[in-house]
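Observation: inputs received (chain + zinc ion).
Thought: call the complex predictor directly.
Action: predict_structure
Action Input:
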Amino acid sequence: MKDSFYDFVSYELEQTLPVNWQHIAEDKLPGAQPCEISHAFHAHIAGESKMVNILVLPLSIKLNADNEKQLLMLRDKLLSERVLLIVINEELQADYLADTGTFISERLLVHSPDFMWISCCLDKNNKMTFDGIHYEYLHRGLAKVWEGKLIYASPRKGLQQVNLEIMKGNCWKCGKEIKTITGLVFPDKQLTSWKNTTWKYYNGLLNLSQIMMDDTILIADFIEILRIKDPVVTPVSFRFNDADQESYFAASCPYCGETCDEFYVNDERTGLLHSMQSRIDGSLKYYSLKLNIDQYLIDRLYNGCEACVHTTDGGWITRTKVSFYQLDKKL
Ligand SMILES: [Zn+2]
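Observation:
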């Protein structure tokens, strides 16, 4: 027998069906119980025709290695077809993820305009939230989706302008003053100058070690040009780590050649994030460059969160709160 949470979602959905929707027959829904799509339909969302798939995960579902694998495969299949996958799960408490919520957060969630995660929280009368503050009935939240009142304001995969970050500091080994390449940030708007407080970047810094092959070549070339004018900027290259027996992309001191250890870099950098002063006084400096970012890097960006005055969460937000983050539509 199906959990009543499925009925709840069906009922809420019936309150707010999108205009011109075309339902997919039940026997044609992808997946298999308990990892089956509950509703699938074509809909016009913000003027665009889109296939929507809804996956319902009640508290009662018992996840194990098999059905977790099924869910991941189902997600990958649907996202490869460029549908909008909406995962609706049931939580006991708004500020605490149970096992299913933890699985969604850590493994199923994809930071993409094709993926939306909605939690209905029992301690909030089964209401949901898009901003973590205001809770509303599920049918009202879904209506915002169909009406195009929500927008996905976060980095997405593809060719785009990102910011390379340079931090003034001292080499942990030789102590000389250097300008360390720390990694990439994804700004919420595009500007000609970054030495101001009018912009934020999404979620946090993507450290150099997380950046993959093609992008590393472009970054290294860009930095070599910077170093012609300013030789104290750290060169970057792949360095071998004895402890992990792996190579990874890293900056090194232009004086002594020692790798700029990410632990020290992040520690020093954290002290500069308490206010925007670091941008104004040049402790943190940013340069735009165009890179082809893949989904893997986007998801790495959301491992952890800096949560400071420099950052913004992004994700699905109401249009009134949209910053001016725009990908270059000419690309
Ligand atoms: Zn040094």
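Thought: report the result.
Final Answer: The chain has a mean pLDDT of 90. Residues 158-315 form one domain.
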